Amino acid sequence: MNSFTVDKIVDCKGLSCPMPIVRTKKAIEEIEAGQVLEVIATDPGSVADMKSWSIRTGHQFLGTTTSEDKVFRHYIRKSDPNEVKPDTKFPHVISNEELSKRLEANPILLDVREPMEYAFGHIPGARLVPLGKLEEEIPQLKSFADQEVLVICRTGQRSDMACHILSEHGFQHVFNVKPGMSEWQGPIETTEVKES
Amino acid sequence: MGKRVAIIASSGGIETAYKVLNIAMAATATDAEVTIFFTFDGLGIIHKNSEQMLSFAPGNEHYEEGFKTANIPPVSQMLAMALESGIKLIACQMTMDVAGLKKEDFIDGVEVGGAVTFLDFAYDADVTVTF
User: Fold this and answer.
1) A38: distance to nearest CA of chain B, Å?
2) Where are the alpha helices (DSSP H) in chain A?
């Protein structure tokens, strides 16, 4: 589960502020919502700048890795303008707080975000099943069909779709966790980030 | 569409040029609408011959080497990027009259306006910076 795809790479090595941001802005316009941009930079200021820039512009800052020779790799996922508004379609919803309480019982928790989002921070025990792969994973999940299954993503939208898919496949007790990881205050686990 | 950033550039020199343009470029990359009002010595930054006109303030010459090693683009290139990103550059009419400057003395893309032209924008600005 350590591999993931990057859709575009922008090389800002040797460039000073504000050029990494200027290049990032240009590059993000050239990719589709949901795709991931990698920004390679040597400017130490870019570490804080990339995060602030992402928050300001509404894109999702996934995280930064630092190599031994002080090269920073920033990962940003382009947001869909509609994604920030959480969806309410699936009727069975639990809050982040409610999930916190239920965690002690080791529930079945599916994290339907992309592998890179998962790698940079997920709830301990959460099982990674990216939304796009959910249908093909159904046979492996079938044994949970009668149990309580909690589904989480970043804002509740992808998990909403996942809940629909699961319930169509006969899963009886599915709950969408809202808002999800974007406001999760509880324990977080990371896995090593390696490119495929 | 987000914030509005109004910048006043009233000093000359390479230092001011970079202070102004760095903030402006970072702001526009962060989806802000940016207007820069160039007045008094600040007009040198957008002059066609800015390369010859702009120098470091006495005592700051040591910056020159640093600018080179840090790979900072020249002012002319920063201005071109600024215009390309939609940053508005306004030259102060009153200073132009006083200094005998014409619109043709400035790089292409510069607009000429009075204080009210700038204030029109600045009244609704979220951030105002003066250099």
Assistant:
1) 17
2) 19-28, 46-57, 96-102, 115-119, 134-141, 157-168
Range of the domain at B33: 4-130
Tell me how many domains chain B contains.
Answer: 1
Predicted confidence (pLDDT) per residue in B29-42, tens digit: 999 999 999 999 99
Q: Is A163 considered catalytic here?
A: no
Is B69:A92 a contact under the CB 8 Å cutoff? no
What number of C-beta contacts closer than 8 Å exist between A and B? 34
Residue-wise pLDDT tens digits, A64-104: 999 999 999 999 999 887 665 444 578 899 999 999 999 99
Please say which residue of A45, A77, A109 terminates a domain.
A77
The verdict on ipTM greater than 0.85 is: no
> What CATH code is carried by the domain that includes residue A112?
3.40.250.10
Cα angle B15-B17-B18, degrees, rounded to a multiple of 5: 70
